[in-house]
Amino acid sequence: MLTQERQSLIEDYVNQHELCRVSELCDLTDTSESTIRRDLIQMEKNGILKRVHGGAQSVKHFSRDVSQNVRFNLNHEVKIAIAKYAAEHFVKQGDNVFIDAGTTTYEIVPFLAEIPNVKIITNGVETALCSLNHGIKTFLVGGEVKDDTHAAVGQTALNQIKAMNFSASFVGANGIEKNGNLTTPDPEEAAVKAAEIKQARRAYVLADSSKIGERNFAVFANTNDVVVVTDKIKLSQKKALPADINLEEVME
Predict the structure, then answer these.
(1) Given phi > 0 = left and psi -120 to 50 = alpha, else beta, which region is 26?
(2) Exposed, middle or buried by CB within 10 Å (0-12, 13-18, 19+), for 226?
(3) What is the pLDDT along the chain (252 residues), one digit of tens a residue?
(4) What span, in angstroms and rounded, lies between the C-alpha atoms of 103 and 80?
(5) β-strand partners of 21
(6) What secondary structure letter does DSSP report for 146?
(7) Residue 123 to residue 107: CA distance in whole angstroms
(8) Residue 49 and residue 199: Cα distance in Å, rounded?
(9) What is the rounded distance in angstroms from the CA atom of residue 211 to the CA atom of residue 93?
(10) How far is the C-alpha of 196 from the C-alpha of 193, rounded, in Å?
(11) Of 4, 114, 190, 197, which sits with the fewest C-beta atoms within 10 Å of its C-beta?
(12) SS3 of residue 68 by DSSP
C-alpha cells in the first residue's frame, strides 16, 4: 500500500472514530506499528490529526466523550503515575474524598486504600465498584447515568453533591485552555464537576498532558480554582498554559 493511500485510510478512520489506538490502525492498514507511528508523526505535522499516547485523535471537531474502554487504555501508565502522586501528596487519614467519574481519577482508588479511614464519594459507577473492592467506605451519587462515561449527572446528582462537604475533590478534564478554562464535552457533566469543586476544601484536576491546549464545549472551572496535576510537560505545552497556573508535574 502506498503511503498516500495508507494515510488517507488513517485520516478517514480517525475522523470517523475521533479517537483510536495504534493497534487499530495497524489492523486497518495491515502495517507495522513503526510505520504507523511514522505516519502519525507526519500527519500531525501536517495538521491532519493529533497524536496522543498510544493512538491518535481527530482535530476536525470539538472533542466528544468516547467509549469508556478506549479511554481507560489511553495513556494508562501516565494516569497511574498522576493518581499515585495525588493520593500520596493530597490525601490524609480520615479525609472525605470526592472522586469524579473519569479514567485518571479512577486510578487513584487503589492508592487511597492505603490511607486509614478515608471515605470515597463518587458519581462514577466504575469508581464506586473499585472502591468497594478495595474495602473503602463508599458513597455513590445518584442520578441519570451516561451511557458513554458511566457518570451520574442531572439535578439529583447536583442536589446530593451540594448537600455534602469534601476534604478534597479529584476531578477529570478533557481540555485545559490557554486562558485557564477547564472543559469537558457535556454540559451536564460540567455542572457536576463545578459542584464537586465548590463543595471541596481543596480541589485538584488530574489530567495527562495530552489535554493541554484542548478545547471542549462546556467550561466547568478555571485553573485559578484548582491545582492541576499532570505528567512532565514540554516547553511548548507550558507556553499553552496560564502563567500563574497552580501546577504539579509528576515525574514517571
Answers:
(1) alpha
(2) buried
(3) 889 899 999 999 998 888 889 999 999 999 999 999 999 998 887 778 888 778 888 876 544 444 555 555 567 899 999 999 999 999 999 999 999 998 999 999 999 999 999 999 999 999 999 999 999 999 999 999 998 889 999 999 999 999 999 999 999 999 999 999 999 999 999 999 999 999 999 999 999 998 999 988 899 999 999 999 999 999 999 999 999 999 999 986
(4) 10
(5) 55
(6) P
(7) 15
(8) 38
(9) 31
(10) 5
(11) 4
(12) helix
Residue type present at position 9 = L
DSSP H helices, the chain, are 3-17, 22-29, 33-45, 68-73, 76-90, 103-106, 109-112, 125-133, 155-162, 187-198, 235-239
Look up residue 146 and give its amino acid: K
Share of the chain residues as helix, strand and coil, in percent rounded to the nearest 5: 40, 25, 35
- The Cα 27–Cα 83 span in angstroms is 32
Q: Is 150 left (phi over 0), alpha (psi -120 to 50) or beta?
A: left
Give the per-residue pLDDT at 62: 46
Extract the C-alpha cell encoding 21. Answer: 489506538
Q: Which three cell numbers stand for residue 74?
A: 489511553
> What predicted TM-score, i.e. pTM, was given to this entire model?
0.74
Residue at grid coordinates 512532565:
232
CA distance 214 to 161: 27
